[in-house]
Amino acid sequence: MIDSNVMHIKFIHVGCHKCGSTFLQEEVFPKIKNIKSIVPFSKNSPIFEGTEYLVRCGELYYSQDIAVRLLKSRLEKYKAICLSSEAFSGADTAILGPGHQIKYISERLRNIFGETKILIVIRNQRKILPSLYLDDVKYGYLVNFKQWIQWRLDTYGMNYFKYAPMVECYINFFGRQNVKTVVFEELFKFETLRDILVNFEVSTDGIENIDLNKKFNEAYSAPSLSVARIINRLFGSKLTYGSIYGPSPVNMYNLWRYHGAPVLDRISQKLNIPPPKCDFEGYNKLLFELFHEDNKKTSALTGFDLSSYGYV
């Protein structure tokens, strides 16, 4: 185990996916003066290779000695570290959506970094599912929302949005006193951010510079969604070529996603075009059947009355 005091790990933000992680990583943590924010999967991250290994290596092949070697030498020069990666709540939702790695990842983090502080952010399933669907369309999916939901059901991918087992898993490995859960619906408030930092014994110096209204990874508008499906089908996408990080022969895809779509999204916003409709007959009933009981358990674990935030 790496001694968390020696490594100066203040806390680890573990996600979830589509729950304001980029906002925390790019707007919040870098502006807090007394922590060193490290996003493991960002460009030029000092621990990219080590985190790839920790998150993605199968249990049968995993070696803690290798993980420690890949992480220790790259972290020991920093102080007051904040690690932030939604991959710690389950790797690659576009590819490995069922969350089957959560237990392994949380155990590995505990064995490497000790009993450090953990931040988890959860979000209403009624909102997070359309957001993740539209994100998958950006990645290259061609299916409609109903087909995407059915695919998630067929591959047990909807389990990822049952938060109680994940929260409980981190509590079991790190201790209830060290795990703080926040709802996405309260995240974009100064009082929430102050509470997180105070809870983790981090100075709030710099918090006044945070822009709560800054948006990241906004979902496609309805017109962009329609165009994206055409571009993905005709010219290919990251999904087509199996490319996650590195370059791939998807020039038209990149031109559309990173340059064309933002322009069309801004035009759509100015014209007040409604967002894409992610719904189908029986959807609300399905959400209730899938998540109601788990949301009651999550409420008991976290102290939040999730029903007051519109959770089923």
Entry summary:
With 312 residues, this protein is an alpha/beta fold. The chain has helices at residues 4-7, 21-28, 48-56, 64-75, 102-113, 125-139, 145-154, 163-174, 184-187, 190-199, 222-235, 238-241, 251-270, 283-302; strands at 9-13, 36-38, 81-84, 117-122, 179-183.
Can you give a write-up of this model?
With 312 residues, this protein is of the alpha/beta class. It folds into two domains: 171 residues, Rossmann fold, CATH 3.40.50; 49 residues, no CATH class. It is built from 14 helices and five strands. Helix 5 runs parallel beside helix 8. It is globular, with a radius of gyration of 20 Å. The model has no long low-confidence stretch (mean pLDDT 91).
Topology:
Elements: H1 4-7, E1 9-13, H2 21-28, E2 36-38, H3 48-56, H4 64-75, E3 81-84, H5 102-113, E4 117-122, H6 125-139, H7 145-154, H8 163-174, E5 179-183, H9 184-187, H10 190-199, H11 222-235, H12 238-241, H13 251-270, H14 283-302
Parallel strand pairs: 1-3, 1-4, 2-3, 4-5
Helix pairs in contact: 3-4, 5-8, 8-14, 11-13
